[in-house]
Design goal:
The structure holds 2 protein chains of 2 kinds. By secondary structure, chain A is an alpha+beta fold. Chain A has 18 helices and 19 strands. Classes of the chains: A alpha+beta, B alpha+beta.
């Protein structure tokens, strides 16, 4: 099997420029004859669909929500990185590249990450021109703040709603193309399969969630922008509908899955409080600019706090353990997410955790409020404080927030080359759904950057290189045997799900899967646990296909049916995540194997044996997938042990 | 907690709907309102046996997604108020501690001519998308933007724009309005872009196109009841409607020059 990432020749700083100079072009007249399907309307999908429409292609865009503006990029809070260096604090493209590749623990491609840093500035320009109301200084120029894993201030933001504002910018651009007729919008569609004709991606099968109708849509190329797979853990910061199904079906049709074990646990989420709980809510990383993380130094104080006998404000300064500042003086509270998450778990495991469950630490704004005033804090984080108060019923201006790590983002995803194309010609994957830029850990404020880089600036260029060879291909008929076969398989699966009528609801099974995933493939993993986890996931999967209960019928809006399909795929993905984690005998970024750690508990990488991308190839139902590797070559940076001390 | 839910059940857009009563016990005051609907649905699924389950005993359809108050997908009319009795929250952020033990809670879909009911508590809000499509953006192609700091924006104007831009498109303003008007929604976008220098060039065209689309979609007009501002989960101010009206009149006065 040949794995070719198609990295262009030349020095790192010249690769993208060289690529753009040599890429094939498609004339406007030919673009008007070509069709492209985009699945998903988050930052990546909306920006790609809009830009492809502007270029003159005919685009069909799909989302499961009732409007493209609902996509979960909307919930991103803190900000977006760019190497503008407006603060003159020593930032540049090289530094953003270096921070990102180091933050990812040297498990991503140099060329991809450099390109990401390179286009970052154009994203800010584009968003400002669209009217995204970024925060500004009194002089009228753009303000920035700091995020984890960087010693410069390069994060642009719109209060605590940066994702919302950027998505609405992209949604505006998309809406304009819909109005102009270049993009056709399909909402409330659950994408259930990818159709491959003569080895090329030619379309999708989806279900109209309102009517239940199964639809076949064809195009010259298919772009997946359907997001990450954090919901395999059941409780996550993802939206309830976020799913892996389009990605998983592409995998089962032959697309390679890369680094599934690279999942990100975000350190600052509102803790779990009850077994009826449906999701977890993030508190932005930006809060760590002004909030200080601590637990009590004394075990007895922690116990009293758990029993609510004392308030955190009763604990004197000398009895507080600001453990991040203590362990990582250089970065303090702004260490990357994987490190902050593990440090919180370490304290809680030792018994210093607070909240009734003992699974929380404090994020305290007392000092910042004293120093900068309540108004300053309100202006910067007002909406986050309000959200916290509504959920927890405590006022974070007066008592410290309680936070705990939770699944937030998935760095793994479908394998793509430099052109963002999978190993299936004509199938592209952008945004969180691909694996490409964040290695084993994503830095804060880099997801928005990557989604928009892929959608606005990279895919619209690279897809031309493929479509230039398709200009003679007439519109693809949607009744080719491959379409009919895929449609039949989708209908068969739906029928199978409806026919079981067992005893357990989809949610019950999904929760069980989530518990197993969190237990064995969460913040810390080990070989023994992973082996056990794999057996448990298999057992849950069998239980699902024997005993799930999907009520109602197929010809109207039936959320249980949609969920059942998504969970069926999570039950397969869960096993692959554990398999990948088991085969990566090292610790790196978000993948922490307890067997591989330094004396002071930091991740211990093994560059000799694992400086590669793990690629999984589907081998058929019930078969173990085959593991391949794409070696990572570091020509321009020297991998070293990540230190934030 | 123990609560009685009276929930609107309607099988399809054209079928006749009715309220159905459900009792729930042992509800945690920390549960969100949507989690209570989840609990109820789980019970209904568990209980139903065989093929011929009466409609009232099938799970209740409602829209939801992010469950952190930002996507705008959830929206229920609870005890006569969009998003229920708490201030400045979406339905997903409404918690049971805002109710009392033994309360009767009436749950309806958003009711407006422009929001046809799809099923139970789900409505079709694509009219809001149509209004944005008509002109709720700055027409700029990818790649043609100037250097970001070449467009300075006074801080207070950027803040005002952000206040308006916070709208999540949930439609609570429409549901709250006795005229089912979408003025606050439209005004939020018009004002957001009109406050910014980038938005000036198209301002006159934009406001006219959006208002025209709003009227075509069947939304009513504004009669200054302030219900929209009161119920808006993001606190979008009605002053933006005044701003929109000024923009609209300005555009009408100089219409010939711009059309």
């Amino acid at each position: 099997m040949k794995i070719d990432a198609k990295i262009p020749e030349g020095h790192l700083s010249e690769k993208w420029t060289n690529y753009k100079s040599n890429v094939k072009l498609v004339s406007p007249a030919n673009k008007a004859k070509l069709e492209i399907i985009v699945v998903g309307t988050g930052l990546a999908g909306a920006s790609a669909a809009a830009t492809l429409g502007e270029l003159g292609y005919n685009v069909k865009v799909f989302c499961y929500q009732d409007s493209p503006r609902r996509a979960h990029s909307i919930a991103a809070q803190g900000g977006i990185n760019a190497a503008k260096n407006y603060r003159y604090d020593g930032d540049n493209v090289w530094r953003l590249f270096e921070d990102t590749i180091k933050g990812g623990d040297y498990r991503s491609r140099e060329a991809n990450v450099y390109r990401l840093a390179e286009v970052s500035n154009a994203i800010i320009d584009q968003a400002v021109a669209q009217g995204v109301p970024f925060a500004r200084e009194y002089g009228g120029y753009l303000d920035t703040r700091s995020f984890g894993g960087a010693q410069v201030s390069r994060t642009f933001y719109a209060r605590g709603q940066t994702g919302q504002q950027l998505l609405l910018g992209a949604y505006g651009a998309l809406s304009r193309q819909i109005h102009l007729g270049k993009v056709k919008l399909f909402t409330r569609r659950d994408v259930l399969d990818i159709v491959i004709v003569d080895g090329k991606a030619r379309g999708i099968i989806c279900r109209n969630l309102v009517t239940g109708e199964i639809e076949r849509h064809s195009a010259h190329a298919v772009v997946l922008a359907s997001g990450g797979y954090g919901n395999v853990y059941y409780l996550s910061t993802n939206a309830k509908g976020s799913n892996v199904t389009p990605v998983w079906r592409a995998y089962k049709r032959g697309a390679w899955f890369a680094n599934p074990a690279f999942t990100q646990i975000h350190p600052t989420c509102i803790p779990v409080h009850g077994d009826y709980q449906s999701k977890l809510t993030l508190m932005s990383e930006s809060l760590r600019n002004d909030g200080r993380i601590w637990v009590p130094k004394k075990l007895e104080d922690a116990e009293k706090l758990r029993r609510r006998e004392i308030s955190p404000n009763d604990i004197p300064e000398e009895d507080r353990d600001y453990y991040l500042e203590r362990r990582y003086p250089a970065y303090g509270n702004l260490v990357p997410r994987d490190i902050a998450s593990r440090a919180a778990k370490e304290r809680c495991d030792k018994g210093y955790g607070v909240y009734a469950t003992g699974k929380a630490v404090f994020l305290d704004f007392r000092d910042a409020i004293k120093k900068k005033g309540r108004k300053y804090i309100e202006e910067k984080y007002g909406n986050l404080f309000q959200m916290y108060e509504k959920i927890v019923n405590e006022n974070p201006y007066e008592v410290p927030m309680m936070i705990y790590p939770a699944i937030h983002y998935t760095m793994g995803g479908l394998w793509v080359d430099y052109e963002l194309m999978t190993n299936i010609p004509g199938l592209y994957v952008i945004g969180e759904a691909n694996f490409s830029d964040h290695g084993a850990n994503r830095l804060g404020a880099s997801a928005l950057m990557q989604g928009l880089a892929d959608g606005y600036f990279i895919l619209p260029v690279t897809i031309g290189n493929y479509l230039a060879n398709e200009i003679k291909t007439p519109p693809i008929p949607n009744d080719l045997p491959e379409f009919l076969q895929a449609e039949k398989e989708v209908k068969d699966q739906i029928e199978r799900l409806m026919s079981i009528q067992g005893k357990l609801t989809v949610d019950e099974i999904w929760r069980e899967l989530g518990n197993v995933m969190w237990e064995y493939a969460g913040i810390a993993r080990n070989a023994e646990g992973l082996k056990m986890g794999i057996e448990k996931v298999k057992a849950i999967r069998e239980e699902f296909w024997r005993n799930v209960k999907v009520p109602g019928s197929t010809n109207y809006y039936n959320e249980e049916l949609m969920k059942a399909g998504h969970v069926a795929d999570f039950l397969e993905l869960g096993e692959l995540i554990m398999l990948d984690a088991l085969h990566r005998n090292e610790s790196c970024g978000g993948h922490f194997r307890e067997e591989y750690q330094t004396e002071d508990g930091e991740a211990l990488r093994d560059d000799e044996n694992y400086a590669h991308v793990a690629i999984w190839e589907y081998k058929g139902e019930g078969q173990t997938p085959e593991r391949h590797i794409e070696p990572l070559k570091f020509e321009f940076v020297q991998p070293k042990q990540r230190s934030y001390k | 907690m123990r609560v009685t839910l009276k929930i609107w059940r309607q099988q399809s857009p054209n079928s006749k709907g009715k309220f159905v009563t459900y009792e729930l016990d042992n509800i945690s005051p920390d549960a969100s309102f949507l989690e209570v609907l989840d609990i109820l649905n789980q019970k209904l699924i568990k209980k139903a046996e065989g093929k011929d389950v009466p409609y009232e005993q099938t799970p209740i359809a409602f829209d939801h997604d992010c469950r952190e108050g930002i996507c705008g997908m959830c929206g229920l009319y609870i005890n006569g108020r969009p998003h229920g009795p708490d201030e400045r929250v979406t339905t997903c952020q409404l918690h049971m501690r805002k109710f009392k033990d033994g309360d009767v809670i009436v749950v309806e879909p958003y009711r407006a001519k422009a929001f046809p009911i799809i099923r139970d508590l789900m409505v079709d809000r694509s009219a809001l998308d149509k209004i944005i499509q008509a002109g709720g953006y700055i027409s700029i192609n990818t790649g043609s933007a100037p250097e970001a700091n070449s467009i300075p924006v006074p801080k207070h104007m950027a803040e005002k724009a952000m206040d308006a831009a916070q709208c999540i498109g949930c439609g609570a303003c429409v549901a709250a309005c006795p005229n089912a008007s979408a003025m606050l929604f439209v005004a939020a976008k018009v004002a957001h872009l009109a406050y910014l220098p980038q938005g000036q060039l198209e301002a006159m065209r934009r406001v006219q196109k959006m208002v025209e689309a709003m009227d075509e979609c069947g939304f009513g007009n504004c009669s200054n009841t302030y219900a929209c501002e009161y119920e808006c989960p993001k606190g979008v101010s009605i002053t933006h409607i005044a701003k929109m009206n000024r923009e609209f009149i300005k555009a009408k006065v100089v219409e010939e020059r711009y059309e």
